[in-house]
Amino acid sequence: MANNTGNKTKTVAKSVEQVILPALYKVMMHNDDYTTMEFVLEVLRDVFRKPASEAEKIMLTIHFQGVGHCGTYPFAIAETKADQVRLRARKSGFPLRCSLEEA
């Protein structure tokens, strides 16, 4: 004889959520013969929010090695920061440029 009490068992399927992180990009600043070190420091502090000591270290890397890593961000943020640098440099009469590299 089967015991039939009327209780039903529910099966609940759990969905597994995966968080997909966006691809990150390095913003690289390139040396040129015209942009002043002071302007590069200003951009590193204002656009990339670097403290003075770190900005100076990055600026010297750019000056002596030809390129320096300013920060790593999701693509849209990296692109915006590179554009801000370019616009600010053009407004000040400098050819300073940044490029993006996939991190």
Short description:
The chain has helices at 37-46, 52-65, 75-92, and strands at residues 24-30, 67-74, 97-102.
Question: How would you characterize the overall build of this protein?
Answer:
The protein contains three helices and three strands; from the N terminus they run βααβαβ. The chain has a three-stranded antiparallel beta sheet. The protein has helices spanning 37-46, 52-65, 75-92; strands at 24-30, 67-74, 97-102. The protein has a domain at 33-102: Ribosomal Protein L30, Chain: A. Helix 1 packs across helix 2 (52-65). It is 41% helix and 20% strand. The protein has 103 residues and is an alpha+beta fold.
Key phrases:
103 residues; three-stranded antiparallel beta sheet; 3 strands; 20% strand; single chain; Ribosomal Protein L30, Chain: A; rod-shaped
Task: Summarize the helices and strands and which ones pair or pack.
Blueprint: E1 24-30, H1 37-46, H2 52-65, E2 67-74, H3 75-92, E3 97-102
Antiparallel strand pairs: 1-2, 1-3
